[in-house]
C-alpha cells in the first residue's frame, strides 16, 4: 500500500511540475509582438513624411548587455529629439529564442520607432528564424523624409555562401523602384565589406551598386565592437562603425536639408 501511495504521489508531482520544465532554447516559440519591422517602418514613414532634416541614433551589438541596453533606451528617450533608432545587429549572442524576446521587450520601451538588422550571432542555431518571427525579412528598406535607408543582411559566412548574401536582387529591385522623391541614400548592415564574414568575392561589386543610388550619405555597420570611420573604397563614401553597447556609446546622425550631415559619438 505504501509503495502504491508513493508511486501516485510521485506521479502527481511529475504532472504538476510540467509547467516548470524549460522548453528547448532554440524552439522559436515566440510570445508577444511579432513582425515589428513593418510596423515600425510604417511609423517612421508616417512620422517623417515631408521632413527635410532627419535625426536618428544607432546602437549595435547589445548581446548579453541587458543593463546597458536598458540604459541607452532611457538615455535616448530622455533626449526628446530622436526621430528613430537603428540597431546594427547582434542583439543575441547564441541565437537563443529568449535572447530575442528579452531584447525585444527592452527595445519596445523606446518612445520612437526602431528597426533591427540581423547580426552574425543572430544567425546561430535557430536565431534567424526567431529574428524573422519577431521582426521580419533581414533585407528591408524604408523612407524617412527624402532619404531612403537600405538595410541589408551581409553575414555571408553564416550561410556558408549557400544563399545570396548580400542579396543583389533585393538591392537592384530597390534601385529600379526608387520614388522620384528620394534625394539621398543611407546603407546599413551588420558586417562591412572586407571583413571576413562578408562575401568579399563581391565586395567591389557591392560598392558599385551602392554608388548607383542617389547621393549616398554614408554606410553604417556594427560587428567589431568599436568606433571607426573609414573610406573603404577610396570613393568618398564613409563607413561608420557603431561600438557595442558595452562601450556605453551610441551614434547620433543629423541629415540636413542642404545636403550635409553631422554625426556625434555620445556617451551615456
Automatic annotation (TrEMBL):
Q: Which enzyme type, at the first EC level?
A: hydrolase
Q: What is this protein called?
A: 3',5'-cyclic adenosine monophosphate phosphodiesterase CpdA
In which domain of life is the source organism classified?
Bacteria
Which keywords does UniProt give here? Hydrolase, Signal
Tell me yes or no: is Nucleus among this UniProt entry's keywords. no
Name of the encoding gene: cpdA
Pfam families to which the protein is assigned, alphabetical: Metallophos
Q: What is its EC number?
A: 3.1.4.53, 3.1.4.17
User: Do you know which InterPro entries this protein is assigned to?
Assistant: Calcineurin-like_PHP, Metallo-depent_PP-like, STPP_CPPED1
Q: Where is the signal peptide?
A: 1-21
* Every Calcineurin-like phosphoesterase domain range: 54-226
Care to name a GO molecular-function term for this sequence? 3',5'-cyclic-AMP phosphodiesterase activity
Organism encoding this protein: Phocaeicola vulgatus
Amino acid at each position: 500500500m505504501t509503495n502504491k501511495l508513493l508511486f501516485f504521489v510521485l506521479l502527481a508531482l511529475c504532472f504538476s511540475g510540467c509547467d516548470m520544465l524549460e522548453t528547448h532554447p532554440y524552439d522559436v516559440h515566440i510570445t508577444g509582438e511579432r513582425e515589428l519591422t513593418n510596423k515600425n517602418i510604417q511609423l517612421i514613414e508616417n512620422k517623417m513624411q515631408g521632413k527635410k532634416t532627419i535625426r536618428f541614433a544607432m546602437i549595435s551589438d547589445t548581446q548579453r548587455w541587458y543593463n546597458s541596453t536598458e540604459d541607452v533606451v532611457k538615455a535616448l528617450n530622455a533626449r526628446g529629439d530622436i526621430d528613430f533608432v537603428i540597431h546594427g545587429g547582434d542583439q543575441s549572442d547564441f541565437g537563443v529564442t529568449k535572447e530575442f524576446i528579452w531584447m525585444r521587450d527592452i527595445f519596445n520601451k523606446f518612445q520612437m520607432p526602431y528597426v533591427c538588422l540581423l547580426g552574425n550571432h543572430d544567425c546561430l542555431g535557430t536565431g534567424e528564424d526567431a529574428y524573422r518571427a519577431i521582426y521580419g525579412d533581414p533585407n528591408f528598406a524604408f523612407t524617412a523624409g527624402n532619404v531612403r535607408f537600405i538595410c541589408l543582411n551581409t553575414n555571408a559566412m553564416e550561410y556558408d555562401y549557400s544563399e545570396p548574401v548580400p542579396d543583389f536582387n533585393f538591392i537592384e529591385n530597390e534601385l529600379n523602384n526608387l520614388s522620384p522623391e528620394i534625394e539621398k541614400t543611407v546603407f546599413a548592415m551588420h558586417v562591412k565589406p572586407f571583413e571576413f564574414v562578408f562575401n568579399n568575392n563581391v565586395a567591389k561589386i557591392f560598392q558599385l551598386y551602392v554608388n548607383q543610388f542617389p547621393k549616398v550619405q554614408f554606410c553604417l555597420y556594427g560587428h567589431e565592437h568599436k568606433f571607426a570611420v573609414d573610406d573603404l573604397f577610396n570613393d568618398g563614401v564613409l563607413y561608420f562603425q557603431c561600438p557595442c553597447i558595452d562601450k556605453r556609446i551610441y551614434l547620433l546622425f543629423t541629415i540636413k536639408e542642404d545636403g550635409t550631415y553631422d554625426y556625434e559619438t555620445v556617451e551615456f
